[in-house]
# Entry
Amino acid sequence: MATPADVLMPASRPAVDDGAVDVLSELYVPEARQWLSSSTGRIAPEGYSWMQAVHWVAGSGLYEPRRYRSHGPRRFGVTTVRVAQELAELFPCRPGIDYLVRRTGLSERSVEYHLGMLRETGLLAYVVRGTRVSGETAQASEFARMIPEAFDVALGIRTVLRDEDAPAYTRAMTGIAEAGRELMAKLAKKAARKVRKPRSTQASKTPAKGCRKAAERGVVTAVSDEVRCTPMQVGSSSVSTAGTTSFPPESKLASGGSKSPIPNQSKAKPGGRRKLNAVGRRFQLARELTQELDWLRGCSVPRIAWVARHVADAGWTVTDVRAWLHFRGEAARVRRGSGLLAVLLSNAVTVLDTPEKRAAAVEQWRGAQEAARRHRIQQVRARTERFEGDWEAPASRAVQREVEAAFAQVSEVASGGRRKDHAADDQAAPLELSEQERDDLRATAWGQLMRGETDLITGTVNVMGPEAAAHIYGADLVRRARQLASAARSSLMTITHR
# Structure
């Protein structure tokens, strides 16, 4: 009989593995349960813990994309982990397709495939789904990084819901079974490393032994495109990294390979980055604001960091700031973005002084966004139905007056303004037209009839009756139009224009 440790430990697999289990049959989340409100998983506390779950799914073999669709990637592999690494660094997780294409070098269709795989495995859940309305700017989707329930079951992780009124996806981890500690340690090492695209064989004909092994595994710690010969970033590179984000080596990580002589005094965050101080949080919030708000594009990040220093020190996120700006109202014309932001953020910390108030403001802002999105869709739908219909207004002014009078009679009868017998008498009575107007109508109707169009005459017949139409156009012209209209409905006759 196999012990619990034997059940949790996976078989050897290439590339990203060490997360396979045998106690579960499959891992698949249908589309209806890919939303945060309907998800069975729990929200990952940070990107580092989420990457542990990503590596476990990649090596478990419980998810096969080709089992649910006939196209797209064949397995959850290195490329999907690369996309997940980009998502783990975003806060909030609101990536655009163009952003992921630019960061990963993949095509737009490939990025959509891998995002779908992350949702189908329960690693991502929709918070707000993006929109693509014709003629307007596309809105990116916002995701919540989730840890699947199968991950907790396989590793024996114990969770608890600290607030009984809170949703189930807010439960927190309280412990882990002894049999799953070894596997969790291996997943921690994988989450601390960077996975990138394998090096092309044409880049160098004689690569070093260590470089070749790293390229085949697709696992390195370097962020740039230069090939590193060791996972400790030891090597030379001609590309300057002054403008990029620097990551500490694995020896400085809490879950790295080498052990620190004083492990309890490690200053590294679980996600692999050092903890930001007050100034760093100000600049981080300022950078996110210049990216999220259109009227702050091009503003100086240090100036925005100084303007938003009070809310940044109070622990506000960019979502909280946007919710407050929605509450205050934004100007339609902005001359100086930093000055407007300073005015709008005044007394923000005093009004929303608790996390509960900020959360309520965020929910109100998201509800307004959803209502605005539905209103835009209704407007586009109404505009499309209005301008793409089959009916066209007549060009003749006399016919327009005639149609308006007919519609007025119909509306008056429908509203109960006249009795039905009077309405029938008025409908049967022909309109008083001059000889010139009658000749113009007949000439227009005859020209349309020669082109195979009978809308003018048939519309008059349907609205005013055959006798009124014969009085206006003549009985012969009405008879020809009705014959042509009935013949056009037959499959044995085709009417074309010369």
Remarks:
- The longest helix spans residues 355-387.
